[in-house]
Task: inverse folding
């Protein structure tokens, strides 16, 4: 605790440079290792770093909500694309036409990218959906 008091007293003059008389101060206890870590991450101004880290967290709630809304929108779009693709694929298969090479390239590229980021459980679920639709499952 003495190290923390020394840290606060040593940095008090720095704090006074930007603090207005009406601005209250706060203190909290940390271990020496935590103090060292905070100072390293903060760089020159520990107070500004802690203020941004703690108060900036409140601002992320709105950002997370916006990301969630975007994901829901993307899921809807993916569903529409999937439905359209299944319609096109079934029409081509019934007419005996092959999938155009450029479309096959896009499909393969998309499939490989998606497989690199999804979990095995989601991949298995997607394969099951493909089987249920009556289409052959692609595997490596």
Result:
């Amino acid at each position: 605790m003495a190290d923390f008091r020394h840290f606060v007293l040593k940095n008090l003059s720095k704090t006074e440079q930007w603090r207005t008389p009406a601005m209250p101060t706060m203190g909290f206890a940390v271990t020496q290792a935590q103090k060292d870590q905070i100072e390293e991450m903060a760089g020159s101004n520990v107070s500004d770093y802690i203020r941004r880290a703690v108060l900036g967290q409140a601002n992320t709630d709105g950002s997370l909500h916006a990301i969630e809304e975007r994901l829901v929108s993307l899921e809807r779009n993916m569903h529409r694309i999937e439905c359209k693709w299944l319609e096109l694929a079934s029409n081509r298969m019934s007419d005996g036409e092959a999938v155009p090479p450029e479309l096959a390239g896009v499909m393969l590229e998309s499939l490989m990218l998606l497989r690199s980021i999804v979990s095995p459980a989601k991949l298995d679920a997607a394969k099951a959906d493909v089987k249920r639709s009556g289409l052959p499952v692609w595997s490596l």
The mean pLDDT is 76. Residues 46-95 form the longest helix (50 residues). The helical segments are 2-18, 32-42, 46-95, 101-117, 120-132. The radius of gyration is 28 Å.
